[in-house]
Amino acid sequence: MILVTGGAGFIGSNFVLDWLAQSDETVINLDALTYAGNRENLNSLDGNSRHVFVEGNIGDSKLVTKLLEQYQPRAVINFAAESHVDRSIHGPEDFIQTNIVGTFHLLESVRAYWSALPVDAKQDFRFLHVSTDEVYGSLSKDAPAFTETNRYEPNSPYSASKAASDHLVRSYHHTYGLPVLTTNCSNNYGPFHFPEKLIPLMIVNALAGKSLPVYGDGQQIRDWLYVKDHCSAIRRVLEAGKLGEVYNVGGWNEKPNIDIVHTVCALLDEARPRADGKSYREQIITVTDRPGHDRRYAIDASKIERELGWKPAETFDTGIRKTVNWYLENQQWVANVQSGSYRDWVAKNYSERNA
Ligand code: NAD
Ligand code: DAU
C-alpha cells in the first residue's frame, strides 16, 4: 500500500494510473481538489478497489494521521503542491501555505507514524518528495546543466516555496533519520496537463482559433520530459534510491519556447488543418514577458542514469505527437476543465500582458 498526495493533478494522476496498471499494490490518493485537481483524470479507475480516493489537505494533520494509521502505507509520495509560476506571481500565499506549511505538516504526521512502526517496517518505509529543477534558478546560455550539487537559487515565489519544502525534507532525514528521497525534475508534458501551462495552452488555443501568447522573445529554454517518463523515474527512485539522496530527472531535451510552439503548430497543421488552409502559426502573438522570467533550465540526469539505470522511453518527437493526439481525442476533458474559474484566470493573466 502506498499513499500518494496530489494524485488528481497532472503528474500525480499519471503516476496513479501507471502504478495501478503495473503493480498489485493499492494506492491511497489524498488530494485537496484545488482548481488543478481533477477527479475526471481518474475516471478510468471507477470501481477499482485498489484506488482509494480521499479529498483532503496535506496540511490536515488529523486526517493524514488517521489515513496513515488506517492504511499503514509502506511509502508516501508527495506530489501535492501549487505548481504554476504565473499564479505564484499573482498570489504567492497559497504557495507558501501548501508547498511550505503543508509539506511541514505532512512531514510531521509522517514522522510520528514512521517513528512508531516496528523495526522492519521502519527500515522499509520511504517518503519521496517530488520537486522541480526551478529550485536551482536560471542558467546562462552556455552554462552546464543543473546537477544535484548546484546551489539553490530560486527566483519565483513558486520555486522559492518548492526550495523551502526540499530543505525541510532534507532536514527531516538529517535530524530525525526519516527515510526520504527527493527528485528534481524538468518540465513535464503529456495527458491531463492543465491548459494554463505552455504546451496544453497552445494546443487548446490553436484549436479554438485563439491567439498563441508567447512571453517576451520566446527564446527562454526549458528541458522537456514526457510525463510517463517522470513517473517511471519516480518508481525507480522509490525502488532503489539511496536514502537522503536527491535525483535530478530530465530527458536531455532543451528547447526554446518558440520552437515548442512551432512544433505544436506543425503537428496540428498535419492532424487538424485549419479550414482556411493557413498554418496555426498565424495565431502566434508576442505578449509582455513574465516578471523575473528564468531564461534557461537544463537537467543533467547522469546520476539517475548511472546509479539507478533509468532512462526515458520517449523522445521529444514521439512524446509531443502522443500529447497532441491525446488533446485531439479528449476535447470533452478540455471543455470540462475550462470552467468559470479557468476563464477568470485566462482573462486575468493575459489581459495584463497584451498592453
Ligand atoms: P498540478 O498543479 O497539476 O497538481 C497538483 C495537485 O495537488 C492537484 O491535484 C491539487 O488539487 C493538489 N493539491 C494542491 N494543494 C494541495 C494540498 N494542500 N493538499 C492536497 N492536495 C493538494 O501539479 P503537477 O504539475 O502535477 O506537479 C506535481 C508535483 O510535481 C508538484 O510538486 C510540482 O512542483 C512538481 N513538478 C512539476 C513539474 C511540471 O512540469 N508540471 C515538473 C517538475 C516537478
Ligand atoms: O521546470 C519545471 C517546472 O515547469 C515545474 O516545476 C512547474 O510546476 C511547471 O509549471 C513548469 O514551470 P514553467 O514556468 O516552466 O512552465 P509553463 O508551462 O508555465 O511555462 C513554460 C515556458 O513557457 C515558460 O518559459 C513561460 C512560457 N510561456 C508560458 C505560458 C503559460 C509562454 O511563453 N506563454 C504562455 O502562455
TrEMBL record:
For the biological process aspect of GO, one term held by this record is: nucleotide-sugar metabolic process
InterPro entries in the record = dTDP_Gluc_deHydtase (IPR005888), NAD(P)-bd_dom (IPR016040), NAD(P)-bd_dom_sf (IPR036291), Sc_DH/Rdtase_CS (IPR020904)
Offer an example of a GO molecular function term for this protein.
dTDP-glucose 4,6-dehydratase activity
> Which Pfam families does the entry mention?
GDP_Man_Dehyd (PF16363)
- Any idea of its EC number? 4.2.1.46
Checking SUPFAM superfamilies in the record gives:
NAD(P)-binding Rossmann-fold domains (SSF51735)
Keyword set includes Repeat:
no
Catalysed reaction, written as an equation: dTDP-alpha-D-glucose = dTDP-4-dehydro-6-deoxy-alpha-D-glucose + H2O
Q: Which UniProt keywords apply?
A: Lyase, NAD
The organism's place on the tree of life at top rank = Bacteria
Q: Where is the NAD(P)-binding domain?
A: 3-323
EC supergroup of this enzyme: lyase
Q: Which cofactor does it need?
A: NAD(+)
Q: Which PANTHER family match?
A: DTDP-D-GLUCOSE 4,6-DEHYDRATASE-RELATED
Assigned protein family:
Belongs to the NAD(P)-dependent epimerase/dehydratase family. dTDP-glucose dehydratase subfamily.
Under NCBIfam families, the record lists:
dTDP_gluc_dehyt
- According to UniProt, the name of this protein is dTDP-glucose 4,6-dehydratase
